[in-house]
């Protein structure tokens, strides 16, 4: 039996007791050159590249087969062709945007602004808020529309105020001006003047945005209002004009959940107070910004220069075929996914995953039964929620129907708009109907996994079920440290600081006793404080935001702890063999660290610290510092880099 560990990736000069990430991955980091089109690169990205090439082969193979018109295969091929036809795109220039600009030219009132925003939603242009259809957090048996804050062009509200983002903020107006000039919206100095007005308006909009930490709060971001209450919250906002523009079904906004009520109040005031001509400037920018990737090379280059080079430090744009694959994935992802599964996902991988999930669930069950800080009443609810978990592995049971989506091989921007309208209609059509518990929110070819609290489900697409996450030929220890801990991580999200506020039916309901919640929150606060003091090697001098990352950090701790317990269950009490000079427990932790092999450019690492709820990769690998099992496996002693005194280790599950 082989271990499944790539020892060539490690650095023997670094002791695992001091830095598990460096010991397991340091050699790879030292000798690997960051790809020129990447801001961050690691295990996930290498698998994504592999999946991307497999999807490209599927797409081009379909297109070469000259499928019949109207078939989903033809749509896949034609969409990719429309993106790859650079001569046609250059010939058209910015003319595909003309119909949208014509709408803006007719805007003369705040109601017209709302009408335009509704119409633009269908064209793939985001507005002042983004409507999201999902299960109601307090009634998981129905769908409802969530209104999510939007309207800014920088990554986050902090970029408009925080001194650490001053350089980006200073460069932004020039980028806006150049984009508006390149697309012929304004000429000469008019573009610069318009850009100043746009950035001023965005700065006003950003001031009402909630920060990343507040946006994680499931209770705070739940304000259910009916149509009358929505209009009282946003006096003067013409919601009817918006809904008509979006071609929304009758009653779509009879009840909505305002995720950030302050933002909705603020945009109502802005619509009333800001001159309509400035709103026209802003609308033109929203159109150019949203559709820049589908225009002529000069526009694409300027767009990348700011959002790639300036914002993330990435020197080179991704190859065109990769961007084309990304478009097909976005618009017709499940159609491609069906072919991907047929070619690249063996049935025995799913069977092995079922066994792993069963052992992880059993490990969580045993953990809850013995958890000393959790009382009987809360424990009963936790076990009931655990029993209600739905695992989804590999691919959906039923595939999405794309029959109503029209694709034209000569009309790229039109294809993007039609694909967006298709998604808007598909999602709004859910309202009033039964909840589709079979729906997936990732394609099978996506290298990722997720937990959905509204359906209390954990989902593992086919593409993540390969090394270093999962190797059907490898030792159990490495698989439990890899995909096993990832499974535990996703289950753990059901019991993290936010997921723990949902019950087994997916409803936002407090099922905790006050004392148990206080115990949980105290442990979470200790984890926040621990990560607040940490820096990633990729962004020296910049601390992690422990409050932003606490949910993912709880998931990692739970994944590690329960993944290790599940590994012990799998061995049925027998001692694992020594492989590659490592015990079974040591291989488990190596398997975990392999998953987080990676590196990031400093600019990208800083950007991610501001907006990403995940801690940097090296710190995720070294989260093992909290586990007594890690200290025992490697005989970690005081003075070692990853030594944490027993009373300072954070253990939640």
TrEMBL record:
Limits of the Peptidase M13 N-terminal domain: 16-396
TM segment ranges: none
Cofactor field: Zn(2+)
Pfam family, one: Peptidase_M13
Keywords associated with the record: Hydrolase, Metal-binding, Metalloprotease, Protease, Zinc
Annotated ranges, domain Peptidase M13 C-terminal: 448-644
Protein family according to the UniProt entry: Belongs to the peptidase M13 family.
Record protein name field: Peptidase M13
Organism: Knoellia flava TL1
């Amino acid at each position: 039996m082989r271990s499944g560990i790539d020892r060539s990736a490690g650095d023997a000069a670094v002791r695992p007791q001091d830095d598990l990430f460096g010991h397991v991955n340091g050699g790879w980091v030292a000798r690997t050159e960051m790809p020129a089109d990447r801001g961050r690169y690691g295990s996930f990205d290498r698998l994504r590249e592999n999946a991307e090439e497999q999807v490209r082969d599927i797409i081009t193979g379909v297109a070469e087969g000259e499928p019949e018109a109207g078939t989903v295969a033809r749509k896949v091929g034609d969409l990719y062709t429309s993106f790859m036809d650079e001569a046609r795109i250059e010939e058209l220039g910015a003319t595909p945007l003309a119909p949208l600009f014509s709408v803006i030219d007719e805007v003369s009132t705040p109601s017209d602004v709302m009408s335009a925003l509704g119409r633009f939603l269908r064209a793939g242009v985001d507005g002042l808020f983004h409507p999201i259809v999902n299960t109601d957090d307090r009634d998981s048996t129905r769908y409802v529309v969530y209104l999510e804050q939007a309207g800014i062009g920088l990554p986050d509200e902090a970029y408009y105020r925080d001194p650490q983002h001053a350089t980006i903020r200073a460069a932004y107006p020039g980028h806006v001006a150049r984009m508006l000039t390149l697309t012929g919206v304004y000429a000469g100095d008019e573009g610069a003047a318009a850009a100043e007005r746009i950035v001023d308006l965005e700065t006003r909009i950003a001031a009402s945005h909630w920060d990343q930490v507040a946006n994680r709060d499931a209770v705070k971001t739940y304000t259910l209002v009916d149509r009358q209450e929505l209009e009282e919250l946003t006096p003067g906002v013409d919601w009817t004009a918006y809904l008509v523009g979006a071609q929304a079904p009758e009653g779509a906004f009879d009840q909505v959940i305002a995720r950030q009520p302050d933002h909705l109040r603020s945009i109502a005031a802005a619509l009333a107070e800001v001159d309509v001509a400035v709103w026209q400037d802003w609308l033109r920018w929203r159109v150019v910004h949203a559709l820049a990737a589908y225009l002529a090379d000069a526009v694409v280059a300027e767009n990348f220069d700011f959002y790639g080079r300036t914002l993330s430090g990435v020197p080179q744009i991704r190859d065109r075929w990769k961007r084309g694959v990304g478009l097909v994935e976005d618009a017709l992802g499940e159609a491609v996914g069906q072919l991907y599964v047929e070619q690249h996902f063996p049935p025995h991988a799913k069977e092995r995953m079922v066994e792993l999930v069963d052992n992880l669930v059993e490990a969580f069950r045993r953990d809850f039964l013995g958890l000393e800080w959790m009382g009987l009443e809360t424990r009963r609810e936790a076990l009931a929620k655990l029993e209600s978990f739905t695992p989804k592995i590999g691919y959906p049971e039923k595939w999405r129907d794309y029959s109503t989506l029209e694709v034209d091989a000569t009309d790229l921007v039109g294809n993007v708009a039609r694909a967006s309208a298709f998604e808007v209609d598909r999602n709004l059509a859910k309202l009033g109907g039964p909840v589709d518990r079979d729906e997936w929110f990732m394609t099978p070819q996506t290298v990722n996994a997720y937990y959905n609290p509204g359906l209390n489900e954990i989902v593992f697409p086919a593409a993540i079920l390969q090394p270093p996450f999962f190797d059907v030929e490898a030792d159990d220890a490495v698989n439990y440290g890899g995909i096993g801990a990832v499974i535990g991580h996703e289950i753990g999200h059901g019991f993290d600081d936010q997921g723990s506020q949902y019950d087994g039916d997916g409803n936002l309901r407090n099922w905790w006793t006050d004392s148990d919640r206080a115990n949980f929150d105290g442990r979470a606060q200790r984890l926040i404080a621990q990560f607040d003091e940490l820096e990633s090697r990729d962004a020296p001098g910049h601390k992690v935001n422990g409050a932003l990352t606490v949910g993912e950090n709880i998931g990692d701790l739970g994944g590690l702890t329960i993944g290790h317990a599940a590994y012990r269950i799998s061995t049925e009490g027998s001692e694992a063999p020594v492989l590659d000079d490592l015990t079974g427990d040591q291989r488990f932790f190596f398997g975990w660290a392999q998953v987080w092999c990676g590196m990031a450019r400093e600019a990208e690492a800083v950007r991610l610290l501001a907006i990403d709820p995940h801690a940097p990769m090296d710190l995720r690998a070294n989260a093992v510092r909290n586990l007594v099992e890690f200290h025992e496996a490697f005989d970690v002693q005081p003075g070692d880099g990853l030594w944490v005194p027993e009373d300072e280790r954070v253990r939640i599950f």
